[in-house]
Amino acid sequence: MTVTDKPGHPLVRAVVLSGAVVETVVRAAGGRGPVTALLDVPAVQRAVSIVNGMFGDGHGDVLPPAMSVRVDQRRVEVEPTALAAAYPAAAGRVVVLVHGLVETERSWFHRADPERAHTGTDFGSRLADDLSSSPVYLRYHTGRRVVDNGRELSDLLTDLVDAWPVPVTDLVLVGHSMGGLVSRSALHQATERGLPWAALVTRLVCLGTPHAGAPLERAVVHAGTLFGRFATTAPLVRLLALRSDGIKDLARGTLHSTLPAGVRQYFVAVTLSRSEGSLLGRLFGDLMVLPASAGDRTQQADLQWFGGMHHFDLQRHDLVYDAMLAWLRT
């Protein structure tokens, strides 16, 4: 990637340069020595995920990562020896947790906050105890097309099922936001390709997933059209155009609506408003996704709504977990 081929406005160049600096340093070092250690720092990992999610895959990625299984923020190779070491108490029931835009698997982990009804324990660990399951956390490049990430997830789950320490009897997919779209895409593609792992999936949980699209991305599209009419705001159009393919996909929402008949779906929507159906809730939703999109009634799914929460409470709030657990037990 070169900065000179990018739009010339200083603001645009600054955005691109932030990614180019990291990319250049890492490539020059060949991924060795202190650079590799630096990339293991959680704050750096978070920064890379944000840059990739916002501007990656068509505009110059910062270390475009392959989708990977993660334990304690470290990549685990999807092969028998590595998985056996990483999951010594592997269960036949596997819960795969797929994060959302500009996130990493660390978004499922958080500090305790009693005032927000957050226990401080991640959903995967709680499900391991409550459902006798093994949680598998993934990290992926959220700036890529949803369909491409869906294909990569499908391939990864093929390898995971084959290499898992014990026979896999049941797969549950839990996706937050974009992660729900990626999970649906993976299931659809695996079914079309006749991949065995698709038949093992019994449940799909979508937490705040924009099935019918996200208004923020649609607003960006409209803003780009408006700003493009005036010379003074043309640089803003070029900046908006740098947004990733993954973000652009959010305007449309679900790219694959057909899933295997045996897969039950659970859609959870939340709103800042504590009143279901209120004007505030319909207009602003959880600040990222509207309830009509997260709880898409055109699909066959069990629906759940909670008030007084924002988009990221969906990954940590006790009410969300308890409702999800109760549904998984039915």
- DSSP helical segment count: 13
Straight-line N-to-C gap: 51 Å
Structural class: alpha/beta
Q: Whole-number radius of gyration?
A: 20 Å
Give helix and strand order, one letter per element, not per position. Answer: HHHEEHEHEHEHEHHHEHHEH
DSSP strand content: 5-15%
CATH fold description: Rossmann fold
Overall mean pLDDT stands at 80
Spatial strand order of the main sheet: 2-1-4-3-5-6-7-8
Q: What is the overall silhouette?
A: globular
Q: What is the helix content?
A: 40-55%
> In total, how many domains does the architecture comprise?
1
Q: Report the CATH superfamily.
A: Alpha/Beta hydrolase fold, catalytic domain
At the first level of CATH, what is the class?
Answer: Alpha Beta
Give the low-pLDDT segments.
Answer: 1-29, 31-37, 58-63, 222-242
The CATH architecture is: 3-Layer(aba) Sandwich
Total beta strand runs: 8
Overview of the molecule:
This protein is of the alpha/beta class and 330 residues long. The protein has one domain (65-328): 3-Layer(aba) Sandwich (Rossmann fold). It is built from 13 helices and eight strands. The protein has helices at residues 10-29, 33-39, 42-55, 80-86, 123-131, 146-163, 178-193, 215-227, 234-241, 245-249, 279-284, 291-294, 318-328; strands at residues 68-71, 74-76, 93-98, 134-139, 170-176, 201-207, 264-271, 302-307. The termini are far apart. Mean pLDDT is 80; it is low at 1-29, 31-37, 58-63 and 222-242.
